[in-house]
Amino acid sequence: MYQETEAGERATLSPQDLSAALNAVSDAITVQAPDGSLLWANQAAARLLGYGSPGELVSAPVNELTQRFILLDEQGNPFPLEKLPGRLALTGVEPPETLVRWRPYGSDDIHWSLVRATPVFDEGGAVRFAVNVFREDTSRQVAIRALQRSEERLAFLASATRALLGAPLDAISIAERLAEVCVPHLGDRCAVWELEANGNVRRIADRAGGASQSSLELEVTPECVVSALGGASTLAGPDERGPDSLTLAAVPIPGESGPVGAILVARHAPRPPMSQYDLELIEEVGKRAAPKIENAQLYAERARAAAVLSRSLVPSELQEVPGLDLHAFIRPAASGVGGDFYDVVSLSDGRSLLVIADVSGKGPEAAALTAMARYTLTTLARYHASPAELLAAVNETLVDQLPDGRFCTLACGAFGPSPNGIRVTVAVAGHPKPMVLRASGKVETCGETGLPLGVFYRLDLIERDVLLEPGDSFLLVTDGCVGEGGAWEGTLHRALAAVQPASAEELTALVEKVALRVQPDHPDDIAALVARYPGGD
Amino acid sequence: MAPNFDMQIETDTDSAVISLLGDLDFHTARRLREKLLELHSEGVNKVVLDMAALEFIDSSGLSVLVAGLKRLKNSDGNLTLRAVPEQTRRVLEVSGLSRVLSIA
């Protein structure tokens, strides 16, 4: 290729005039010799590259120039020197305009330049020099990138919010969603810690992904996570530029009254280190997760309290009754603690009384009344030999004690010897009637329904006897097992009739299974107390 | 979830008819309790609960009936249930409360 060097030139312009004209151009212009050294530069070039004058710039050694700057491509990776447009032009090609990001060594002052290089050939076709034109593009590129980042940020936060919205109400599931959101988008590893109300700290999620294997050791809670659990975000590293180089971002998950957890994100080389911007993004994710984690903690706390309270309503171990195989279960309502209880107590004549009861209403208040009813019954039992008399006495106490319409339904059976087996004296106060599963598979209900306890002073329960023969079982259940008004009593009867139980435990398991099958989300308490009479001696 | 419950009330000087709709349970029983208290304080001592459109009643609902019954009896009044659906009737029987509530 041959360039017409005289083209367009008028005789009136001297070389000084030309220089002056090129110095007036705002783009930086340099002319580079085939060996890479500079032959000429304009004022804008000297300014851009940090020299006092074009003369200073031109006389600077080539390697000084290349060592003064760090060149990066659009993605932030090191820019290979041989791919610079000027170097390419010196090989005789005319490279496309190239966007170069650079900063002076030791400075954070980032510049963007659009670089165009054109080779100029001599008559023999060899490259005489290359002309580089640097067009300053920093403010435009910064604006474009800020816009891209804010769009990315919004999209990322929207995806984080979506992921968290769908998470179940337990801290571990929420933490796992969080980690999925952060890896690999923000880092190669994300771990989440929970700070429980009692001060316990536990790691509840840990996810690795992305390009590099994370070598991060998390057996001991890192210092930066401890700080985050105290409310302070930190961005640490990279310590060194090497294959193991990593940045760590640790942020709190801020609850209403202090952190409820912390998120740690690690990003390894060769990905570029995380920036303050990434840290802020993770903080935002933490803020979005905070109410979810807090609710999960409250919910777990409530469930724990309900379980403790419910356990306190029933004996930790059933009193043994000679000749009977006893088993019981209670399952508090999914919504919290309810009012069911059961017990085995001794009457004044030495007979054992099996009791199951249900105080109306739900929640801690019902549980407190349930405890009161249970202890009243246990205390009064030693003064009475008849179930109906005992319940009349309990009723009098409860009428005075139970507030505003609350009542207690109860069914019980007193077990005494009989020549042919066991005679059970049954009393029923507004409760589902006891069931007897005969050895033959026949299911009967027994007892005479009377008023619940705690409604009126007069109770007047009627006792009924039922005889248990070897192989028969006696079942006390609450309405969670048979439905309001015995809505699915028939289902339970059919299930019972179809088994030949070898133990009382087998029957309680069956009752529980039927109740949960009918109402999988079991909104009511379910409890059962079963006595099986194996017979023989 | 929005509670599926509503009441329609017609009052006279000392009597009222409350028609119950939907579920009278743990979440909604409080509303009937408060209505009964309010009517009682206004001197109404004969209350009829129309249960034709009542779909469900649990022990919290029964508690409100018991509380209302006790209060009205204490002031020489009465609580009467009418148009009781079959399922509710069974609940009242199992709970023994059908013995003390007037069911018309």
Provide structural commentary.
The complex is a heterodimer of chains A (537) and B (104). Chain A is α+β, with helices and mostly antiparallel strands and 537 residues long. Chain A folds into 3 domains: 15-136, 2-Layer Sandwich (Beta-Lactamase), CATH 3.30.450; 146-308, Beta-Lactamase, CATH 3.30.450; 313-532, Phosphatase 2c, domain 1, CATH 3.60.40. Chain A is built from 14 helices and 22 strands. In chain A, the strands form 4 sheets. In chain A, strands 2-1-6-5-4-3 form a 6-stranded antiparallel sheet. In chain A, a hairpin with a 2-residue loop joins β15 and β16 (421-429). Chain A starts with 14 loop residues before the first helix and ends in a 5-residue tail after the last strand. Chain B is α/β, with parallel strands linked by helices. Chain B has one domain (5-103): 2-Layer Sandwich (Transcription Regulator spoIIAA), CATH 3.30.750.24. Chain B is built from 3 helices and 5 strands, in the order ββαβαβαβ. A 5-stranded mixed sheet of chain B has the order 1-2-3-4-5. In chain B, α1 packs parallel to α2 (59-74). The longest helix of chain B is centred in the middle third of the chain and has 16 residues, at 59-74. The relative contact order of chain B is 0.18.
